[in-house]
Amino acid sequence: MRRRAGHGEGRVRLEVEGKTIELAAAELDIRIQAKEGFAAADGRGAVVVLDVHITEALELEGLARELVNRIQGMRKEKDLAYEARIAVRIGAGGKVARAALQFGDLIAAETLCTDLQVEFADLGFTREFTIENEAVRLSIREARL
Question: Left if phi > 0, otherwise alpha if psi is -120 to 50, otherwise beta: which for 124?
């Protein structure tokens, strides 16, 4: 089936098996359906299509942000002052460890961490978590300035 715009206002002409069919706008129901791995939306005469494939870099950044969330939760649980600087030790393997190494600066900046190491040591306040099916141990303390 081939679609081409009709000359009449609000009308569409379709050529189907050698025959031309003309339809009014009220007779049409046009829908957007994105291919797998993409998302699409339309409105006001425009269509937006997004590639929603998760790259490894995006996945690692997401894991780093999950570490930030867990560390911030520990700060709150320990009742540290908002502006308190902290030291953090992360015990993890696999993708979580790679995320911590690759996005260490982001983790440190978001958590006010002045001493971040991706090698576990007990700093006095330790919690164990599971992130994306990986065991993670986090330990924090207020930084010694």
Answer: left
Check: CB of residue 22 under 8 Å from CB of residue 7. Answer: no
Distance CA 26, CA 23 (A): 8
Report the distance separating Cα 67 and Cα 96, nearest Å. 8
Residue 80, phi then psi, degrees to nearest 5: -80, 145
Q: Give the predicted TM-score (pTM) of the model.
A: 0.70
pLDDT tens per residue across span 94-115: 999 999 999 999 999 999 999 9
Cα 52 to Cα 42, 59, 108, distances in angstroms: 17, 12, 28
Q: What six digits make up the tokens of 85?
A: 């600087």
Beta bridge partners of 20: 15
Phi, psi of 87 (to 5 degrees): -110, 145
